[in-house]
Amino acid sequence: MKRILIVKVTSLGDIVETLPVVADLRRAFPSAKIDWAADAAFADIIRWNPGVDRVLSAPLRKFKKARSWNDLKEIGASIGELRAEKYDVIVDIHGVYKSAIIAFIARGRRRYGYLNQDLGERGAAFAYNARFGPRPLTDAWRGMRVSVADALGYRLEDPPDFNIRLPAPTRELNIPRDARIAMLFHATSADVKKWPQSHWGEVGRWLTARGYSIALPWGTEREQDEARAIAALVPGATVLPKLSVVECAHWIQASELVVGADTGLVHLAHALQRRTVMLFAATSREHFGVNDPGRSVSIGEEGAPPDVPQVLAAIESVTNSPQKPVPHSAESGATVR
């Protein structure tokens, strides 16, 4: 096996949870070149993994929103770049039309995709000349790893290796180095995933009483207003300035605890091996949650969000366990396995 293409296009949490596939392939095929095709919005996150040789990206989301001619030209250029190499195998572990089109356009002898019943969009089946086995009875993240391992004939090794190396921030982030930071990710992509502000206030006050410094990130003006409302309920809480994804990753890396809704940045906290509690209210915890006993736990369920006592118990379950060592270099970024 000389060259492999991974196709996983979006979104932040899915991209993060796919990173262990790279380490799996590296162990199985040490000399192979591994490329990854994704939406340009998430390309930098893939570049944080030194196991990826080339990231192929196009502004698909951006073009869908703005219909810009420049974005269309970038997409056209990306097609040429995609076809510049011939792959021994292409693994589409996304399974929707846009990922199938990428897999079909790329030059490769074998194009693997999910069985029809496991595809996110059944029409994607046109792109494949080989299929993964039936979806394994496990969460979505391990399921991707199992599917690729079974198809390419190697043995899966645990635990998952995210192999993230953060680039140095381009500005001073003023992260307090002597504080026990707890980041509360209250913002979500959909209102049905939200947890009540009063609940966040209770959790924030409980953590403050135990010596934590509460940090509240946000991404939009509405989320900033929500962060300020929660901060008003938690004396001493800090509403952070607007951060890029890599800047937020550095704040996560410096934190002792992350509590948040089902969002990509909380998946990133799990990948960065922070003590993490993920709250579910509108999606499947069993399918999309994070779990690393003693470090990460998911609670709640679709239609049944957790209450405050459940969240506090979950926090205690991850904070009362001995912390596993995580190598960190403040000057050159963080390497996490």
UniProtKB/TrEMBL annotation:
Its EC number is 2.4.99.23. InterPro entries: Glyco_trans_9 (IPR002201), LipoPS_heptosylTferase-I (IPR011908), LPS_LOS_Heptosyltrfase (IPR051199). GO terms for cellular component: cytosol; plasma membrane. It catalyses: an alpha-Kdo-(2->4)-alpha-Kdo-(2->6)-lipid A + ADP-L-glycero-beta-D-manno-heptose = an L-alpha-D-Hep-(1->5)-[alpha-Kdo-(2->4)]-alpha-Kdo-(2->6)-lipid A + ADP + H(+). It is found in: Cell inner membrane. It is an enzyme of class 2 (transferase). One of its GO terms (biological process) is lipopolysaccharide core region biosynthetic process. GO terms for molecular function: ADP-heptose-lipopolysaccharide heptosyltransferase activity. Pathway: Bacterial outer membrane biogenesis; LPS core biosynthesis. It is a peripheral membrane protein. This is Lipopolysaccharide heptosyltransferase 1. It comes from Caballeronia zhejiangensis.
